[in-house]
Amino acid sequence: MEYSLIKSRVMGNLETTGFDTGPDIGSVSYAFNIMPPVFYLVRIVDTEAKAAKDLNDIFVERIKRDLSQYSCSNIVYVNVYVCKENSDSLKVKFESFENDMGEKVHNVNWIYDCNKDSLIFPYGQPDKLMGIEKCFCVSSGANISNGNIKIYNNRPYLTYFIIAANIIVWAYINFFGGTNVVYSFGGSREGLLNGELYRLVTPMFIHSEAGHLFFNCFSLYIFGRETEKILSRVNFIFIYLITGVLSSFFSAVFSTNLSIGASGAIFGVIGALAAVSRIKKYKTQLMDYFTILLYIIVSIGMGFSQTNIDNCAHIAGAVSGFIIEYVYINRKNKQV
Q: If you write DSSP's letter for every residue of 232-271 in order, what string do you get?
């Protein structure tokens, strides 16, 4: 797709979200949105053409000088570089980019790869900002990419469905006399030895206590939505189910207690997210690889300090989720 077509579609879409158009000199176009105390400025640059750096410097300096007139104190300056090649070298450049425009200007650098029809966020750059990223995806059909990883930008319907299923089963158990569900479908070594293999799947949808349900649904809401967003839905549900099954299996191997709860599968999802973050340097809105890893360690550590916590399921879920996604990503990279 040519720069001129991308520019016209994106600028039109920015206008529908409240942005006004600024100077347009062919190879560089501007849009802005004044939302005190922040002045949002978007610059779309054709890297194939010679950009007018002097004009850019003059334009930004003029805005800095007149910030007080707009009741603003800072500029968020989003630079989107449209290129047909060398997107990898640009990505490396912006991963070590240092702001030289003063403390009032906060630079954000994204790359639009025409050949891949993909919006790329170099490591350390935000992947969401005022819906600007959606202007590229919606208007030109682009994929979103953070570093080298494709972000499917799914709406987390599967996550919401799983949360709803957990709540429905819990409500049935507690309000409609379904207490036998826990004993009939919970994880059990004896049940598995008797051939009741469905007990590998059903425990991940069963909760008996409100606190247990709330913590697991809250964790799934936080980590499930993020993971479903960046993985394909098939990959996400595969990770959730297979790590849940493995958690039930290892729980039965190392414990004779009845096991219920979605935490093993949720730790599997978190482990997969950690693998993506570790290999691809993907950074979520709030967490990087070490933060996710710290969460796993602290959560499992807290489990050892409490009774009735199925640590075997937690460990099995986190480890299997990490390994499965790690192997999947590396295998996919080799195919590419």
A: -HHHHHHHHHHHHHHHHHHHHHH--S-B--SHHHHHHHHH
Q: How many CB atoms lie within 10 A of CB 157?
A: 10
Contact between 161 and 169 (Cβ < 8 Å): no
The DSSP secondary-structure symbol of 306 reads: S
Q: Show the tokens assigned to 175.
A: 């309000």
The single-letter DSSP state of residue 147 is T
Q: CB atoms < 10 A from the CB of 272, how many?
A: 31
For 237-282, how does the pLDDT look when each residue is reduced to its tens digit (9 = 90+)? 999 999 999 999 999 999 888 899 999 999 999 999 888 877 765 5
Catalytic residues: 263, 314
Residue with structure tokens 């709540």? 167
Q: ∠ CA(117), CA(86), CA(148), 5° rounding?
A: 60
User: Residue 86, by phi and psi: left (phi above 0), alpha (psi -120 to 50) or beta?
Assistant: left
Residue 166's CB is within 10 A of a number of other CB atoms, namely: 21
Peptide bond between residue 37 and the one before it cis (omega within 30 degrees of 0): yes
Return phi, psi of residue 111, to 5°. -130, 135
- Report the candidate in 263, 62, 94 with the shortest Cα–Cα distance to residue 166: 263
CB-based contacts of 69, cutoff 8 Å, min separation 6: none
The answer to whether 271 and 240 are in contact (CB under 8 A) is no
pTM for the model? 0.58
